[in-house]
Specification:
- It is a single chain.
- By secondary structure, the chain is an alpha/beta fold.
- It has a single domain, classed as Rossmann fold.
- The protein has seven helices and seven strands, in the order E-H-E-H-E-H-E-H-E-H-E-H-H-E.
- Helix 1 links the parallel strand 1 and strand 2.
- The protein starts with 7 loop residues before the first strand and ends in a 7-residue tail after the last strand.
- Belongs to the short-chain dehydrogenases/reductases (SDR) family.
């Protein structure tokens, strides 16, 4: 028996990078998956690659109406929703003084408000089913300082995870956050970033960055019934960086 047999999952930001890794693993483990992204070309290609139990829906995660559309399409296609993975997010490398108000609000909308909207959208469906697992992707920068905007919102994801877990526990809905360190995605394996990451890896106790699948395995555990008594907690996967 596969670890997610019979379960229905929504995964945001799933067209590429770490999100695509989550989508592929969930499908391999028996889940029916609706994944969303703003990149329609990549999303449609991944849908075609993975077959009939995986569907792509174009979504702006900062738009409440889009969230209602995703929930409705998921229930119409596959039935009751068991899992939500709030994976969509962005970063921006600008200092406090360089960043404009509109740039800051964009990070807040995508990284933080989308998590609130996603949970609000799926909770009624999960309540009807009497169970559910919500996994919010934060960052190691939801535990320690980093870039302005990114760090702020990732701390907020950690906070809303705990608040929601307290409110939703009696409904059988679990909420946990995942805090990855540096992940081996195209963003860090191309161009000038290669040497930067190589140098940075020397400061990681495990002396390497994580592969996307390693993070996906942790997300899978939290989505599955194997983590049935875990809620309101942060799960760190950073090679030991924040242990220092």
């Amino acid at each position: 028996m596969k670890r997610l047999d019979g379960k229905v999952a929504i995964i945001t930001g799933g067209a590429q990078g770490m999100g695509a890794s989550h989508v592929k693993l969930f499908a391999e483990e028996g889940a029916k998956v609706v994944f969303t992204d703003i990149n329609e070309k990549l999303g449609s290609a991944l849908e075609t690659e993975l077959g009939e139990n995986v569907k792509f829906v174009k979504q702006d995660v900062t738009n409440e109406s889009d969230w209602q559309n995703v929930v409705e399409k998921t229930e119409a296609s596959f039935g009751a929703i068991d899992i939500l993975v709030n994976n969509a997010g962005i970063s921006m490398s600008k200092s406090l003084l360089e960043m404009t108000e509109s740039e800051y609000r964009k990070i807040v909308d995508i990284n933080q408000i989308s998590v609130f909207l996603g949970m609000k959208a799926v909770v009624p469906a999960m309540t009807k089913a009497g169970k559910g697992s919500i996994v919010n992707i934060s960052s190691m920068n939801g535990l320690v300082g980093g870039a302005v905007g990114y760090t702020d919102t990732k701390f907020a994801v950690r906070g809303i995870t705990k608040a929601a877990a307290i409110q939703l526990g009696h409904l059988g809905i679990r909420v946990n956050s995942v805090h990855p360190g540096v992940i081996e995605t195209p963003m860090v394996t191309q161009g000038d970033a290669v040497e930067v990451i190589k140098e940075f890896s020397k400061h990681i106790p495990m002396k390497r960055v994580a592969k996307p699948e390693e993070v996906s395995n942790l997300v899978l555990y939290l989505a599955s019934d194997e983590s049935s008594y875990s809620t309101g907690s942060e799960f760190v996967i950073d090679g030991g960086l924040t242990a220092q």
